[in-house]
Amino acid sequence: MEILVVDDHKLFLEGISYLLEKVAAGAVVTALSTFDEAMNCAATVERYDLILLDLNIGGGDGVALLQRYAELGVFTPVVTLSASEDLQHIQSALDAGSMGFISKSLSGDEMLAAIEQILAGELFLPEAIARALADQRDNRQDLLSALTKRQLGVLALLCQGCSNREIADQLFLTENTVKSHMMTLFQKMEVKNRTECVLMAQQNHLFTS
Predict the structure, then answer these.
(1) Distance of alpha carbon 51 from alpha carbon 78, whole angstroms
(2) Domain boundaries, the chain
(3) What tens digit of pLDDT does each residue of 33-58 get?
(4) Distance CA 201, CA 209 (A)
(5) Does domain 2-131 correspond to CATH entry 3.40.50.2300?
(6) Which DSSP string corresponds to 15-53?
(7) Which residues lie across from 53 on neighbouring strands?
């Protein structure tokens, strides 16, 4: 079995290599430590049986690598890793094709079980992460249900950085009408200002599939 590990932490690479030997005796582990190295090798990664990818790889973002693999039609299972448990980053990785997420805070035995589960073709997420993502999806649906089509249109343009004047021009509304929609958005989303409104939309992936 050939396994690619994309991670820039030497001690973690040594530890995960040891664990992978337990999963498959004689496993050949290849390590890449920078985003550029991984991107340059993207066209050849399909020869591996498993890819372990640090979401915060030095020099770039692991999600961008996942998206590149998808563009190339790579079907090798990829599991993302991180010391951070940022839900938005994890969800973005799952949306880009990750087979799961392994927190670097897990014990060796937990990581081993996670890798075995992924090699068996199953998605793996730590229970707390899976629960938090499910809650986030529920929140997203609640928000989408609460907002009208016009309010969502205003919010989408707000998230693109448009001013009230620009929103009004694009939606053929008056600025006063836009301000009224904005106040309703603040109330329904339970935020205090434009910045919090945009952040809430991003955190709940309102405009992503």
Answers:
(1) 5
(2) 2-131, 147-203
(3) 899 999 998 989 889 989 999 999 88
(4) 13
(5) yes
(6) HHHHHHHHHSTT-EEEEE-SHHHHHHTGGGGGGSSEEEE
(7) 6, 80
* Cα pseudo-dihedral 40, 89, 201, 149, rounded to 10: 60
Conformational region of residue 98, where left means phi above 0, alpha means psi within -120 to 50, and beta covers everything else:
beta
pLDDT on residue 178 = 94
Phi first, then psi, for residue 57 (nearest 5°) are -60, 140
Report the sign of the C-alpha dihedral through residues 186, 191, 192, 196, in that order. Answer: negative
Q: Report residue 26: phi and psi, to 5°.
A: 80, 10
* 147-203: in CATH 3.60.20.10: no
Residue for token digits 């006063």? 176
Specify the pTM: 0.69
